Amino acid sequence: MTQIEDWDPQRLNLFRQGLAAWYQASGRDLPWRQTCDPYRIWISEIMLQQTTVATVIPYFGRFLDAFPDLASLAKADEQDVLRLWEGLGYYSRARNIHKAARHLVDECHGIFPSDPADLEKLPGVGRYTAGAIASFAFDQRAPIVEANTLRLYCRLLGFDGDPRAAAGQKLLWSFAEKVLPDTQPGDFNQAMMELGATVCSPTDPDCEECPVKTCCRAFTDGTQDSIPKLGKRPRITPLSEVTVAIYRDGKVLLWQNQPGEWWSGLWGFPRFSAPWKSEVEVDQSLSKRIEKQLHHSILEATGLQVEFSQTLPLIRHSVTRYRITLYCFVAEYSGGEVDCGDRDIEWVQPSELDAHPLSMTARKVANIIASS
User: Which residues are known catalytic residues?
Assistant: First the structure.
């Protein structure tokens, strides 16, 4: 028999009863639970993609304070949406919810569809998110497979293959469909996600506290630490980049990141690849060679000539598979006309930087220069 066929009605009932009792007693009281409002559920689910619950909670509250309903989000300027999303990362999520809100208001009379197939037509909504909205908001019998339930399903089945390969996905979605009850499927899905997030953790799962361990093949076989099978980690690529805050008459130059670039739609200080091949030591007294390279790169990127006035601390951060060393400078305009290609630019007072949606690293630089 396959792993799924091992789950007969008796085992399913035992599993569902144990899960329901545990969730009622131990489920966290999160701000997006205890509601059937599809708008709030949708916003929370999009925010939670690739992001931890602890990080999302304050963003969720601020976002709903600004945009309490679908109509207010649809009417908003994209820049205001991005500003509230600033720091959450994966900014395409914010642009997609803005597009989806306008579509729902303009084309659907402000009404969320309840069918998962219709929900999947919305920008940024995939199979999992559609199932979550359909089951949590409308109590539709819609299975879900996301990071936490994927791990939980693999262990319950004892599946030691690649869960993200086509065969693995087919197996896990089939299992999610099989275990889902006909009544209160939304509560069941919430409980499964909660169990995966709090007990069936990626490393060192708390099997002794698991309410369904007697149904778990991995627990029985002692393989919970090796399941699910991890994919190959992407090869890390180091990058060195430069950003410079250029002042002119007390204002500082911002440019907007373009489609196809990281942080598209957000603003930042001119930023470009470092003109040196390997990491270098940079201090307040720039060497002649480094200064010459920087002058050339800034002129090429912005059309401006500058005089350096300050070297800021290095910023090290990661974007997908890239590990970036960011060299940060402050400079004064000394000549030339701005030429940043097709980018939108603005000269703004340092005190006005808070009103612009900036990338995380640009915000760090902005906070330093605004306070100096």
Answer: 45
